[in-house]
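The instructor's notes for this session suggest beginning with a concrete chain rather than abstract definitions. Hand out the sequence below and ask the class to guess, before any prediction is shown, which regions might be ordered.
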Amino acid sequence: MPAPTVPTGVRATRPWPGDASRQVLPGAASTTVAALVGGPRLAGEVVAATRTLTAVLVDHGAGPVLLCLTGPAAVRLPCAVVTPWPVAGLRPGQRALVGEGELRIGDDDGAVVTVARWWRARAAVIGDIGLARRRTAGQTDQPALDGAVVAAAGRLGLALLCGDGDELAEAVDGLLGLGPGLTPAGDDVLAGALVVATAVGPRAAARLADAVEAAGPLHRTTAVSAGLLPYAARGLAVPQFTAYLAALGSARGDVDATERRLLAVGHTSGAAMRLGARVALAALAGATR
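After discussion, reveal the predicted structure:
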């Protein structure tokens, strides 16, 4: 898929009735959602709303795509539109329109975010994959993770190592939706493995991505988590994870510091992504690019 063209400006849009009573604020959007934000208006729906995040699924004809509004202190998701302060009062089920440089949510009590700037989410790079594998080979501590998640991650690693399609499908099936929260730990394991597989090579990445897609994430886990997995399949993740992977693959990388920052992400998300990276590196580090 070609990289989207980032719009150089925002077109004038027609005002909606009641705009005067809406929250109106600027945003800085990831270039990964440039085709959505800068294209014609498309309908969407709020699928999650927390104190720091509003998640919207937008149907662009080839399946739903996730876009998230986040405040400046929130974890920087690869599909985020970052606003100067969190947008308050939004709720799941509200309608949304995305396009022509704007994101509009709800009716009179909703919000209008106009994209004024862009930022670029970069795919993870592991410079020396063998070094990264050796550095993670001895990791056994998973204090934040449930034993069922650790066991399911182990089955994923074995399936990736053996290359058996049925075993891989079963391993993915066992991880999807496993655990509580907006992004269950099992999904974060899959996301970590997907990002590493993309860095290792296209064949490994395609095999795992196909297995995840075939499992039907939108019907198996939260909409937010399901929406983030396709980004992971493109090597895109939160910056704490990509920085950790870069450090693992560099002789000069500060692995301890980047690992601490990663483990601070969410209740279990950082630890689960680290586990996904470890099992994928152990299984795929010798794969041919």
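Then share the key points. The radius of gyration is 19 Å. The chain has two domains: 19-119, 129-284.
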